[in-house]
Specification:
heterotetramer, A mainly alpha (316), B mainly alpha (636), C mainly alpha (119), D mainly alpha (217), C: 119 residues, mainly alpha, Helix Hairpins
Chain lengths: 316, 636, 119, 217
């Protein structure tokens, strides 16, 4: 029974299927909203899904210079780790595998899709991919510092005098004391998190790694067919994972008592986060330069997060 | 019988060293046989101690020449193997054996191998003796042998001027460190009138005089030199780079572990100083600075081995930070990271050696695209790189997690913001580690293959086997860490934190209690966050899915090649019309976005790593002075 | 007056460290290391000194008559010093031969020139 | 034998001095080694004195004679043999069911007799042998390292010597560091234990004397 339930968790509900489907839906929402803001009609909401299935049917070309195993394995590893993270993010008071969710585990798992993209791009042997992975890595270093500060602030807040790296404790704390976002000391951290999300996902102002117009999609330049489809799916899933993480870190206190309703609220908040921090910013900004990106994250965003951490430390 | 094993292992190595000198200087077969027999027997002797010491909890004490203590005073030289010693001894023999196997292939192109193996056995014997001895002066002697053997091995390829220079710097800084240690030992002798560590521990328990604080500061500085924490790290980077790779692996796996062992032994066992929050703070800050400077220097290196050297320094920073916390969690994490560092850094040095052996260079700008030429080495390298970057599910992840947990717990418990900053530094350093390994991956194994390297061959089997073993150990230690914790880490941490048994076993039951030493019991560290069963299932899912994609992808390149079509534009890499040879992305060109933002920092740092030996000596003296002053100001 | 010995040994150590840190000539650096060693040796020997003690050697008559405790100086530091002297000699020999080899490769024994590995 | 160049060879005083001192140094050194366990001195000190014979030879007759009279290669091997002997003698203790370095032979002598301290005596001899070979070898190597500046002139003057010099040069190129190093490292390994053991002998004797005293009272 436990095995069947585990398999259900892994494959259907918070796991692979739900993450993929809802992630693609969020990608559709994103495209639609951006189009609307730019006075276009935009593609239908299911367009990313169509794209994905279309790519699965296409031929996979592996260039001569590429290392075949790494080239093909990279998107899969990214995909699985993203599906995995969703298992450890509590959807209000539900976690698939309780007791094993931990902020540090999540922090590291979130880097894996990025690493997979880097390894895949790097293994293709293209100079454009080389530049792309370099930028991806710098982006990663850039958002890691504020991200870490945010997580530590939340953990400190939820833990009180003891330590709480556990997502479950954070969730319980919010159930008892109301959402994290209602604590005014956490507001700077929430804003910082909203800026970290687009960098993590790689949308408009922070998409230096895949800059289509400069380096021809960087790491993805040699990809085609199913692996490319998986990478596109990964990006969509990252949107869900990051907005889901945001929801459970900062909006964990909203609960209705009905499980289905909880999930719907969770999904609605995810959509809202996507619209606010990805679509809107995407529509109104232009791409940053890589060094500006780094400076932005290590000064402004980290500053916000640090303010939050210090406030929490002072007991506010 | 079992109590003879430690001394037999050490003496066997020394005896083998002399035998190599007598019989093996001209005959490769005899030489290799002696080396491998000695290495294997020493390994078996030490592994045989796991059951009595680690599992049954015995402590082995051994008095040379049966000179037992007379009326409570230790008069002889004692060997004492407790769990902590055995933990490090296991690391030492494992590294040593693997490095020995690797040397058979790797060093086969060099001359005068008799001397190489003599020094090599001597180095191993001295480190083994260092971690198992119970006598502080014997420890100092072993340190000296270790330093000399290290210097000579660093300068072994002395047709290369870098080797001589590195050897000289290492010698100067190393013997300064030894002099500090010796001064500390002398002061301690003046205080306690004994050289036995157990007895010192009992005498000095909660009873520190200014002289013994001075001794503590000097010995800590001395072991800092041996473990290459930051102001002392400068010659280490050169030595790692210039030494033959099998020796670099020993440095990373054994020599700086000897320094770490000394730190733990001195701080925890002899002085019991780790319950003082200011000492903790001092050591933790040294650790944090070490990890940060190590990794930022590594990001700009152009040489594979030098990059690995700076990473070695950086990872030791984690270990020092963790052991500086003085908590059971921190000590467990630190020991685990020390063990993992031995495994993955050894592995990475071995891959670097394989690349050097196959291509003749370790310059990152001249390498590239080797993953198709050396696929096995590439896979081993990736495992090592992911382990050191701490990606789950490899071993580095678990130990780093423990370190973060320990540091942040400390921060929350003590309410000290410095520890929170250290946690942030540790986490960011981890990403930077990842970044620099991405750089190596891109510059050496992936990316484009330069024309000169088209004919590169895979490394020979004798070099691949140690790499496989190390990779397997990296993965296993990550997956089965509860076993590692139960049988290795917890006993070791327990024995470091609770000195009663150590003292009693050496000087007779009840000695510690008479001297007022408290008996502290430590609960095993619980890992609740990470459920290996779930993770194993997920791993299987990953591999099944990967297999499906690889099988299911419509790939026709193989067929085309079989039909004799050599070139097809469809499978060519896109260069937008440039020639391939003009569009190389050099390894050192990566991350310029990062480097431009950090220009000022790097200018300062590169100025400090000037390469002038007197500058390094100045740092050493300054750091020692800082440690001394801090100890005096804070401990009184 | 054993205090004089302690002061002298500290002075020697400091002088040695000063030499290592300030002199650019590699041979002088090695000499500095030697001076540090001598200072430490002096410290150790002085530690074992008992006022009015004699050399720690037994005669047969001593053993038969019994020996008053504290009659000897402490023999252990002397053993330590001897070991430490040997080590010091080895440091010097090793370092000097390295300097000679470096001179052959670099044509200089100025520390400022011997810096091919840096940064 | 004729010598062309150099500072020392033609100086009769130094040569005669070396001649006179050589036997004395040998005998004195051997004495120190032999009586190391019962009187001041010991294997290391005696060994160094004996090996100063190499230095005397060099002073009196120059490097070539010294290295011909005392073959460095032989010294190197003998040094390792001495060290092995030390370890094996130490291991005898384990062979007799006791601990490493335990006195097992002749352990019941009269104080002051030559062979009264058991295995320690022989270990002292092993150390002495090892040190006299080791330090002698070390000295020869150091001298060889200093040789080449004069060697070039000599090579021009005396073509027959070229072969030897080529050998020397070859020997210099790679091995000298490790070799020398070996010597050094071995020296200290072995040095410590006999010394402390000697100290311990003394300490034990003190304890024994105290016991006797107590018994007498």
């Amino acid at each position: 029974m436990i095995i069947i339930r585990s398999l259900f968790y892994i494959l259907i509900f918070p796991g692979v299927l739900f993450t993929a489907a809802f992630g693609l839906f969020l990608a559709g929402v994103d495209r639609k909203v951006v189009a609307r803001m730019q006075h276009r009609i935009g593609p239908p909401l299911r367009q990313p899904m169509y794209d994905f299935f279309k790519l699965l049917g296409k031929e996979t070309i592996i260039p001569h210079a590429a290392n075949k195993i790494a080239f093909l394995a990279a998107p899969v590893i990214g995909f699985v780790s993203l599906a995995l993270i969703m298992l450890f993010i509590p959807i209000f008071n539900f976690t698939a595998f309780s007791g094993s969710a931990d902020l540090i585990v999540i922090l590291y798992l979130i880097t894996i899709p990025g690493v997979a993209l880097i390894v895949g791009g790097s293994s293709s042997g293209s100079p454009y991919a080389g530049i792309g992975i370099s930028r991806e890595m710098v982006t990663m270093m850039a958002y890691e510092l504020p991200f870490v500060l945010i997580l530590l602030a939340v953990a400190r807040k939820a833990g009180g005098d003891t330590l709480a790296f556990s997502m479950e404790t954070i969730s319980k704390w919010q159930a008892a004391n109301g959402s994290m976002i209602a604590q005014w000391s956490m507001i700077p951290a929430a804003i910082a998190m909203l800026l970290v999300i687009p960098a993590e996902v790689g949308t408009q102002p922070f998409d230096v790694a895949e800059a289509e117009t400069e380096i021809c999609e960087g790491p993805l330049i040699e990809y085609s067919g199913a692996p490319l489809g998986l990478f596109k799916l990964n990006t969509a899933m990252k949107m869900l994972v990051m907005s889901g993480l945001f929801t459970s870190l900062f909006f964990g206190g909203i609960r209705t008592g009905f499980y289905i309703l909880d999930v719907i609220v969770f999904m609605l908040i995810c959509v809202a986060v996507t619209i606010v921090c990805m679509s809107t910013i995407h529509a109104v900004t232009a791409r940053l330069k890589i060094e500006h990106l780094f400076k932005f994250f290590w000064t402004f965003v980290s500053g916000l997060a640090l303010v939050s951490l210090i406030l929490v430390w002072c007991g506010l | 019988m079992i109590q003879h094993f430690p001394v037999l292992a050490v003496m066997l190595l020394f005896l083998a060293a002399f035998c190599v000198e007598i019989f093996g200087s001209h005959n490769a077969g005899v030489r290799n046989t002696i080396v491998m027999i000695a290495a294997t027997v020493a390994m078996v002797l030490i592994y045989a101690l796991i059951k009595p010491v680690m599992i049954e909890g015995q402590i082995i004490s051994y008095w040379m020449g049966n000179w037992e203590p007379v009326s409570g005073y230790a008069i002889g030289i004692g060997y004492e193997v407790d769990q902590l010693s055995l933990f490090f001894a296991l690391l030492v023999v494992t590294t040593f054996w693997l490095s020995g196997v690797y040397s058979l292939g790797y060093m086969s192109k060099d001359h005068h191998l008799g001397h190489y193996y003599t020094l090599y056995l001597m180095l191993s014997g001295s480190v083994l003796g260092l971690v198992m001895t119970g006598d502080i002066f014997n420890m100092f002697v072993m340190i000296e042998i270790m330093t000399f053997a290290s210097v000579a091995l660093t300068a072994f390829r002395n047709d290369n001027e870098g080797a001589l220079e590195a050897g000289f710097k290492y010698l100067v800084i190393g013997s300064m460190g030894s002099s500090f240690t010796l001064t500390g030992v002398a002061l301690l002798y003046g205080q306690c009138h004994t050289l036995n560590m157990a007895q010192m521990s009992a005498i000095l328990y909660q009873n520190l005089t200014p002289t013994s604080i001075m001794a503590l500061a000097l010995i800590v500085a001395g072991f800092g030199v041996k473990s290459y924490i930051v102001p002392f790290h400068t010659p280490a980077a050169d030595a790692y780079m210039a030494a033959p790779t099998s020796v670099s692996m020993i440095f990373a796996g054994m020599v700086n572990k000897a320094g770490v062992y000394g730190m733990i032994r001195v701080l925890y066992t002899i002085f019991n100083a780790m319950d003082k929050s200011t000492v903790q703070m001092l050591i933790v800050i040294f650790g944090a600075v070490t990890m940060f400077i190590g990794v930022t220097m590594a990001l700009t290196q152009h040489d594979f081995k030098r990059l690995l050297a700076f990473h070695s320094i950086s990872q030791i920073g984690y270990v020092i930070t963790a052991i500086g916390l003085g908590s059971a969690l921190g000590l467990t994490g630190g020991l685990f990271h020390a063990m993992n560092h031995t495994l993955f850094k050894g592995l990475l040095f071995l891959t670097a050696g394989a690349v050097l052996y196959a291509t003749g260079t370790t310059n990152l700008d001249k390498l590239g695209g080797l993953s198709k030429k050396m696929p096995k080495t590439c896979i081993c390298f990736l495992i090592g790189a992911f382990s050191i970057s701490g990606l789950p599910p490899f071993n580095g992840f678990v130990s780093k997690w423990l370190v973060y947990q320990a540091v942040y717990t400390k921060a929350v418990e003590s309410g000290n913001f410095v520890y929170a900053i250290v946690t942030v530094v540790a986490l960011v350093v981890s990403v930077m580690t990842l970044a620099s390994f991405i750089k190596v991956t891109q510059a050496v194994f992936f990316g484009q293959c330069p024309v000169e390297l088209k004919k590169t061959q895979e490394a020979p089997v004798s070099m691949l086997v140690p790499m496989y073993i190390m990779s397997a150990l990296c993965v296993l230690a990550g997956l089965f860490y509860p076993l590692v914790n139960r049988f290795l880490l917890h006993p070791a941490a327990q024995s470091a934190l609770n000195v009663t048994n150590y003292i009693d076993r050496m000087l007779g039951e009840g000695y510690a209690a008479n001297m007022g030493v408290e008996n502290i019991q430590v609960a095993p560290v619980q890992f609740s966050f990470w459920n290996p069963i779930v993770w194993l299932i997920l791993f299987v899912v990953i591999f099944v899915a990967a297999g499906l994609v690889i099988i299911g992808s419509k790939e026709e390149r193989g067929k085309m090649l079989q039909q004799g079509v050599k070139y097809d534009a469809k499978y060519a890499t896109f260069f937008s019309g440039e020639e391939e040879m003009f569009s190389q992305v050099g390894g050192s060109d990566l991350f310029w976005g990062f480097k431009t933002d950090w220009k000022g920092y790097y200018r300062v740092l590169e100025g400090l790593h000037s390469g002038i030996v007197t500058d390094y000596a100045v740092y050493t003296v300054m750091a020692t002075a800082i440690i001394t002053v801090c100890m005096f100001v804070f401990m009184r | 007056m054993i205090l004089v010995n302690y002061i002298a040994s500290v002075v020697l150590i400091v002088l040695g460290l000063y030499t290592v840190c300030t002199k650019k000539n590699l041979i002088k650096v090695v000499l500095g290391l030697g001076i540090v060693d001598y200072g430490v040796n002096m410290l150790i020997v002085s530690l074992g000194f008992n006022d009015g003690g004699t050399a720690p050697i037994y005669q047969m008559s001593d053993l038969l008559n019994g020996v008053a405790p504290g009659f000897f100086v402490d023999p252990v530091p002397q053993a330590l010093t001897l070991t430490s002297i040997v080590i010091g000699a080895c440091v010097d020999a090793m370092a000097l031969s390295l300097v000679i080899m470096i001179y052959r490769k670099y044509k200089s024994i100025n520390a400022d020139d011997v810096r091919r590995l840096h940064g | 034998m004729k010598f062309k160049e150099g500072i020392t060879e033609k100086n009769v005083i130094i040569k005669c001095g070396a001649d006179k001192f050589l036997p004395f140094a040998l005998v004195f050194g051997l004495y120190i080694i032999m009586f190391g366990t019962v009187s001041p001195g010991g294997g290391f000190q005696g060994g160094v004195i004996v090996s100063s014979a190499a230095l005397l030879l060099y002073l009196g007759y120059g490097y070539k004679v010294a290295s011909k009279a005392i073959k460095p290669e032989v010294l190197r091997v003998n040094e390792a043999i001495g060290a092995s002997l030390y370890v094996i003698l130490g291991l005898c203790g384990i062979g007799f069911g006791l601990n490493f370095c335990r006195n097992v032979f002749f352990a019941n002598g009269q104080v002051g007799d030559l062979i009264s301290a058991g295995t320690i005596t022989f270990m002292g001899y092993a150390v002495g042998y090892k040190v006299l070979c080791g330090v002698g070898f070390l000295l020869l190597l150091m001298l060889a390292l200093l040789a080449p500046e004069g060697a070039e002139e000599e090579a021009a003057a005396e073509p027959a010597v070229e072969e030897i010099e080529a050998e020397e040069a070859a020997a210099e190129e790679v091995p000298e560091l490790p070799l020398q190093e070996t010597v050094n490292a071995v020296l200290e390994t072995e040095e410590k234990e006999p010394m402390e053991a000697a100290a311990e002998t003394v300490a034990e004797a003190v304890a024994a004397a105290e016991e006797k005293e107590g018994a007498a009272e």
